[in-house]
Fold this protein.
Amino acid sequence: MAGQPLNHKALTALKKAEERALWAEEDEEALSREKAALRLGRVQRAMQMKVDGYDYPEIASELGYGSAEAAAADVHLALEEEFLNNEQYSAEVLRMIELKRLNTLYAALRPGIERGNSRSIDVAVKVSDRIAKMTGLDAAQRVELLQLDHVNDEIAKVQREIAERRAAIENVVEGEIVD
């Protein structure tokens, strides 16, 4: 049969086999992408749960991890990836986590704030203060105070110099009158 031309039936079968192989490859790639997306979704949920204050055993149980260590590994990988993507220091990653927590708290307080609940409003103000401190919004006030302190020091210095010159002038004037 080698060297003989393929008949139509054999050619059709060969084309169908090639198509099935391509479909199988595409199906495998699609399945692989789907698994990766599901894993990414689970990793993101695990990280969000950690941000929300859950511990690793709770995350493992809720998301179907084999162990708390496996959940911790995924959360740490997600944090490292976020760190690498944001090109920030590890303290910055921790600050981002804390800010996400604070934003979650604030969002939970919103219904009480809208109803005018004074306790919700008080807690929201504290959360807002913490966010402002963490993001450096309060830093501008500190800079102004430092600048005012510097100005006050300069004013005091000039006042001392003026007093010293007056005293020197009075001594000279008195010295001339007495002579």
